[in-house]
Amino acid sequence: MNAVLQWLTDPTQWSGPTGITARLLEHLAYSGLALAIAAVVAIPLGLWVGQSGRARWLISAANASRAVPSLGLLFAVALWVGPHIRGSLAFLLPSLIVLVLLAMPPLLSGAYAGVEAVDPAATDAAAGMGMRPAQILWRVQLPCALPLLISGVRSAALQVIATATIGATISLGGLGRFLIDGQAATDYAQMAGGSLLVAALALVVDLTLAGIAAVVTSPGLRAARPGAASIGRRVGARRLSTVPARPAHQGARS
């Protein structure tokens, strides 16, 4: 433990192109770029599936794809794409493709689940006011879907940050270099320090996204229990449906 603290507090480890600061910025750049690309594709697609109810098989397929091993997928894409590209892009592009593919399922599921969980009474009221489907999505469904949507973003961010670490096995930069280089040099302090840095980065990013979710989420959504109102309405409707209707002539006699 003392060796790890000594490595982390050594000023020479924080400077230079291979220092902690540079590797941290590389890791954030790779993760942020992959997350942004995946969000541009997956979030609109999930919102569309949730609102229209079409192509729901995409959600099942995305969830099933989570079973694919990250390391195996990384090597497969690197062997397939790498020989056709020259320079440093031969290492960056395969890793970026894998990170985007791994980030899409939680983003897609979060967007879909968020829209699917919106109270139908709210969308019916918006439609009754004359809103078009696009207006209902942006003004009613999307604000109500933000908690689950951001939960998907948080899950995707953690997945990308963790997987970007193993990208160092195919010469990608980032914090994973400390694990690979430390293993090659039998420097266990460097390996442990790199692991702690990855864990700390994931924790900071997750807490940041949680704070953003608390700010952008409506106070009414935070106070209400998810699904409580809709469940209550369904139970009430079920009870009313079981009560036999009273004939009109009986009411007149009484």
Description:
The radius of gyration is 25 Å and the shape is elongated. Helices cover 77% and strands 0% of the residues. The chain is mainly alpha-helical and 254 residues long. The protein starts with a helix and ends with a helix. It has one domain (10-224): Orthogonal Bundle (MetI-like fold). It has twelve helices and no strands.
How does the overall form come out from the CA principal axes?
A: elongated
Note the beta-strand portion. under 5%
Per CATH, which architecture? Orthogonal Bundle
What is the average of the pLDDT values? 84
Structural domain count: 1
Q: Key features?
A:
disordered C terminus; mainly alpha; about 75% helix; elongated; MetI-like fold; about 250 residues; single chain
Would you kindly provide a brief summary of this structure?
This protein has helices at 2-8, 20-52, 57-64, 70-81, 89-116, 120-128, 133-166, 176-184, 188-216, 219-223, 228-242, 248-253.
